[in-house]
Design a protein that fits this description.
mainly alpha; 9 helices; globular; 242 residues
């Protein structure tokens, strides 16, 4: 009978841990799977954002010219409020029954947890924007064939910063009792650079500016994205355990 050496047994029985990218995908898959089964984050966030757009369109009615002047602010305020709501519901899931503690105690890199959850929030915001942008165009008389590409580019530059900032500070406030209030108080000042850049870029776009004229705003949003993505990867572990 042929014997099996200990080295062979060890090599076949010890599984290699997943790489960093695989860990990120596992965290992202978990969040997306929960959302597909429950639908609570996207349903509540998208409905709330849509309600803000409809209410604002009725409140600020004054003809096509006036509507286009206020459309940029309404668009990004609705997305900002929906983002905070989505973050609150997302982190509430992790807080319930110690799910966050279980996630942090698993053999998964803290930076991978941050990246996976930030990607999940990014997907949620993109879905909300997919609902809000056509609704804003409808209620504020915007021609998407003319402004659609520019609005899409502004959204793509602004959304990563929203997702990264919200994920980082959502982890910081998840264990506090007044977490929803603290999250909003802390988050909105930090989001203000990218929100203001997105609002002004959208306003200029609706005022017939070419996309190439908005490069400075894109650069500002890109710097904000890079800062909070990098900061989140580095600081998430300490903030989530604090």
């Amino acid at each position: 009978m042929q014997s099996v050496t200990p080295t062979a047994v060890d090599a076949t029985s010890v599984a290699r841990p997943p790489g960093w990218s695989r860990q990120v995908m596992l965290v992202l898959h978990k969040d997306l799977l929960i959302e597909v089964r429950s639908g609570e984050v996207l349903t509540t966030s998208a409905f709330f954002a849509l309600l803000v757009v409809i209410t604002a369109s009725l409140s600020f009615y004054g003809g096509p010219v006036t509507k286009q002047l206020v459309a940029s602010g309404v668009l990004w305020l609705s997305i900002a409020f929906a983002t905070v709501l989505a973050l609150s519901r997302t982190w509430q899931r992790e807080r319930d029954e110690g799910a966050l503690d279980g996630l942090l105690s698993s053999p998964v890199s803290r930076s991978a947890v941050f990246a996976g959850k930030a990607l999940g929030v990014w997907v949620f915001i993109l879905v909300v924007e997919a609902v809000v942008l056509p609704a804003t165009a409808l209620f504020f008389s915007l021609d998407l064939s003319k402004f659609g590409v520019g609005l899409l580019l502004i959204s793509l530059f602004a959304t990563p910063g929203l997702a990264a900032t919200g994920t980082l500070f959502g982890a910081m406030t998840v264990r506090t009792r007044a977490r929803d209030l603290i999250l909003a108080v802390v988050l909105f000042p930090l989001l203000s650079p990218t929100l203001l850049a997105a609002v002004v870029a959208t306003r200029e776009l609706l005022n017939q500016a070419e996309v190439v004229e908005l490069v400075d705003y894109f650069k500002l949003m890109a710097v904000f994205d890079l800062t909070f993505v990098t900061g989140g990867l580095a600081l998430f572990g300490s903030l989530s355990e604090g």
